[in-house]
Amino acid sequence: MKFISKNWGCRYIYAIFLMVYLLPYSVTHARGYQQQQFKISGTVSDAHGPLAGVTVRVSGSRALGTFTNFDGEFSLSVTASDTLVCSFIGYQTLKVPVGKQRQLSITLVEDVTALSEVTVNAGYYTVTERERTGSIAKVSGDEIAKQPVISPLEALQGRMAGVEITQPTGIPGAAPHIQIRGQNSLRRSLNDNGNLPLYIVDGVPLNSSPVLSQNGFLATIGTDPLNGLNLGNIQSIEILKDADATAIYGSRGANGVVLITTKNSHPKIQKTVVSADVYTGVSKVAHMVDMLNTPQYIALRQQAFDNDGATPSTNNAFDLLVWDQSRYTNWQKKLFGGTATITNVNVNVTGGGEYTSFLVGAGYQKQGTVFPGDFTYQKKTMNLNLNHRSPNDKFHLNLTANYAINTNNLFSDATFISTAFSLPPNAPELYQEDGSLNWENSTWTNPLAALEADGNTTVHQLLTNMSLQYQFSKVWAIKANLGYTDLDSEEKIKLPVEIYDPTLWNRSSNRSQHYLVHRKSWTLEPQLVYNQSFGEHHLNALVGTSFQKDVNSSLRVLGTGYSDRHLIGNLAAADAVTVSENQQLFYKYNAVFARIGYNYRHTYFVNLTGRRDGSSRFGPGKRFANFGAVGVAYLFSNEDFFKNSFSFLSFGKIRASYGRTGNDQIGDYRYLDAYETTPGPGGLYPTQLTNPDFSWETNKKLEGALQLGVLKDRINIELNWYRNRSSNQLVGYPLPAMTGFTSVEANLPATVQNTGWEIMLSTLNAKSNRFSWRTAFNLTLPKNKLIAFPDIQQTSYSNTYRVGQPLNLAILYSFQGLDSETGRYTVKDVNDDGVFNVEDRIAVKHLGRQYYGGLQNQIDVHQFSLRFLWEFVKQNGYKFSAKPPGRLGNTLKSQSPYANDPGNIQTPSQSIYALLAYNNYAYSSDFAITDASYIRLKTISLGYALPKSLLHLIGLSKGEVFLHAQNLFTITNYIGLDPQYTSGKNLPALQSITLGMQLNF
For residues 986 and 979, what is the distance between their CA atoms, to the nearest angstrom? Predict the structure, then answer.
């Protein structure tokens, strides 16, 4: 249940501050004159419903006041001559004369000039949006809670400048790809990715590496460690981007920081509130690729035999001679054209007293799949937040815990999606008359046999943090954060012989694959905080230290030879058990950090941060490094000359930052000689060479920004320019094969540069008591370049990168068109040696995004609300290809003689030469790169707030019903399944429609 609107978090802080200010005084304090007092009561609301935490006081007296409860209600002792003042951050202050009134109904109007005072989380401290010196982007929980996704990162697509998020597959639970301001490191493999940001959940660092999987759908992607979070329990997500914002995290913040804050209880509002969110809906694949139908396919196959001068036989053409040539199956619809159901339930209970409050909740989410069969992803979550303060308000305790059980029931077949494009359209029926799988006399591989394999992954995850603070003087406080995380993943895949053709069962055996991953870590961060003002000078500072220890273990086991299908998975029943991996890795991290923030007249700002990090991933003498940054800002709209000369500008600030961060995102123990044991008495064999001299990657960040508010902040503009340079790259240095090793860990003298512009625009287009319309726009223009790599030609990276070019590129053959004599595609043989190898790859094509962004609109008309987000991306990607025309297996209509321009299509043929020519063209030439740009209606949500009369009748304080759609449609010229991710044939991001309600009891 969403009972806190977009900016209520900071408003509650403001309200609580005023409550503390008012409570020491008696509401019956003398006012210098005697009048008859009486009780007045009322409600305070805005256009959307009741407002909790609004300060209501008697004008001219700070002693007489109260605040509204969760239902917006208040009562106060007043006299007839009094005037009530109602104030709430984000709203215009309203004065109401009492007179003879005994019951009031007060409506507050949002104040656009106060919206810039929203508080953002900068990690170890908070700062207002107006006064921040760093680059911080924020998305509130309300913007992501209704989205039917598993990972919170998926809900951020298109909403933040400088944050690139792609969804590589529509499989529930798969890890999205995230980059903040580009790729900094040359390392980008799944298990050795140096570009991952730091995840912080409620102050606790979380291992951001995807959890590895043996499931074919997820083996190259992994699952997201953030899957255990309940999206309905997220208060906000902040992304820290520049050096000023990230340097306090030292090496861990080299690639940016993702701060996730879950919901807190609210002290002093002494009423128990139950909130519930429920939605249900369906998902499906929104777009299918246009393939050949049966008559077109048969004609193309026959033409290929005629062109080759060959005669079809039952060995090479059972699709022509054995199978029914009148049968047609759309294999895309058959294999992944189903409808997946979605169910989500989230319940929170909030309550407490003056000194202690709590929030406890539970959630359940279930998503089906679009595949045949009953496969589901289920998430069960529990969350707890406990706030306590001492009566003298010096001691504060905050305890947060999030626990989740994720269960993914999915068969394992990495080729299942691509099978839909390789099967002929007249392939046999899937089932025989008796309901068993049809193998058509061993003339094909039945794709549904893959469903016989039972895959199940269960992940238990705990994230907990306790924050303690004691204010031992007006300016000094001590704090401590104690965090613990635990992730336990158990994956079991059962592979019975039924996944094969029955003629092979006597040569196959029942098998099982087991993969266990256990991650746990603890963190301790004591801090000392100072906050003082000296007239117009304001100083706040902190110093602290960080201790962290991670333990990562994994076990991979293979069981074979089960006598019965029902015993598969019980290793005690296996004929043979093989352990292919069993390891436990330890990682220790220590740091000392400090920050000094100073401002003069809230106009001139300086922020200094520094950190000394120590990592166990480096050898002795290389383990410690220093990082730091400086951020400055000038809020020139506070100057008198500005106010007098530029009255139409309500806000103006320029800021800049520069700093140095690091990176230790490599495997553990890379600086040591490593050995593995052999089964039996064989002893040890070496697996890794020692190199104790490599050390930290370094990332130097520079940024400049301009922020403007126009017409009382009805229009807000932010323009950022950044430049990040990452050097001393930590990569595997290639070794000659004669050494017995492929590489050794080392620092290469390569420098990667990311520059770019970020443009953010938000406008309040219209505002009245019954109508409002807001728009937010973001645009990112990134540029990535390898600016230095001495002697790159002497390394294996010469075939992967080019100095002066982006890292995300393809080095390909130069396509030369069709050979007029053979009718086959040709590529350029640069040295005319008749062999195509790396020396012939002279064409360089840039992949990835040239620009991207999003356009959001928020429209409220009385009780109706409409929210929608357009995501747009300009990029290049690989063309979507299928079988060459004429070979056994279907092909794309656009790549066949039935295309709109058949003159550029290779002559249908089954020869090996035609296959090689097609592969060179379709996968290895510059012709394989195409425009994969798109505009997508990412989210759209229509809501209706239940009228107050109905709410009171059924005993609710707030209620809303909503209809939400995800990935509703896409505008693109790309012919594949999804232009978002063009590398491979993966299940695309699904189109979803859900119907739900949010209720407060």
Answer: 11
Number of neighbours of residue 765 by Cβ within 10 angstroms: 13
- The whole-angstrom separation of Cα 548 and Cα 200 is 13
At residue 267, the pLDDT reads 58
Distance CA 432, CA 496 (A): 20
Specify the pairing of strand 576-600 against strand 604-615: antiparallel
Give burial (CB, 10 Å; 0-12/13-18/19+) of 580.
exposed
Q: Name the amino acid, one letter, at 412.
A: S
Is the distance from CB of 350 to CB of 235 less than 8 angstroms?
no
Please give the single-letter amino acid code of residue 704. G
Alpha-carbon Rg for the chain, nearest whole angstrom, is 32
How far apart CA 26 and CA 28 sit, in angstroms, is 5
Q: Which fold has domain 115-262?
A: Ferric Hydroxamate Uptake Protein; Chain A, domain 1 (2.170.130)
Distance CA 301, CA 427 (A): 14
Alpha-carbon gap, residue 807 to 844, rounded angstroms? 11
* Token pair belonging to 512: 């099982």
141, 277, 360, 361, 388 from 399: Cα distances, Å: 20, 24, 11, 14, 9
Asked if pLDDT for residue 906 goes beyond 80, the answer is yes
In the block, residue with structure tokens 């007029």:
820
pLDDT digits (tens, 9 = 90+) for 371-399: 998 999 999 999 999 999 898 889 999 99
Between strands 848-861 and 929-931, the pairing is: unpaired
Cα end-to-end span (Å), the chain: 10
**C-alpha dist (Å) from residue 749 to 194, 279, 326, 400:** 16, 53, 62, 44
Local structure of residue 291 (DSSP, 8 states): B
Enter the DSSP assignment of 564. Answer: S
CATH superfamily of domain region 8-110: Carboxypeptidase-like, regulatory domain (2.60.40.1120)
**Cα separation of 258 and 138, whole Å?**
10
Q: What gap in Å lies between CA 670 and CA 692, rounded to an integer?
A: 8
Residue with tokens 């006012």: 31
CA distance 509 to 568: 10
Q: What angle do CA 799, 803, 804 make, to 5 degrees?
A: 135
Which residues, 6+ apart, have CB-to-CB distance to 166 below 8 Å?
Answer: 157, 176, 177, 980, 981
The model carries a pTM of 0.87
* Distance from C-alpha of 833 to C-alpha of 822, rounded to nearest angstrom: 19
Closest by CA to 10, choosing from 99, 124, 138, 102, is 138
Beta pairing class for 697-710 and 715-727: antiparallel
What is the dihedral angle through the alpha carbons of 48, 49, 51, 52, rounded to the nearest 10 degrees? -120
Q: How far is residue 854 CA from its own chain's centroid?
A: 15
Identify the pLDDT of residue 794.
79
Alpha-carbon gap, residue 664 to 886, rounded angstroms = 51
pLDDT at 816: 92
Task: Answer yes or no: are the C-beta atoms of 870 and 936 closer than 8 Å.
Answer: yes
Per-residue DSSP letter, 427: P
User: What is residue 62's predicted lDDT score, i.e. its pLDDT?
Assistant: 52
Q: What is the mean pLDDT of residues 621-629?
A: 91
Q: Is 34 a residue whose pLDDT tops 70?
A: no
Q: For residue 244, which of 659, 606, 654, 625 has the smallest C-alpha distance?
A: 659
- Domain spans of the chain? 8-110, 115-262
Distance separating alpha carbons of residues 941 and 144, to the nearest angstrom: 11
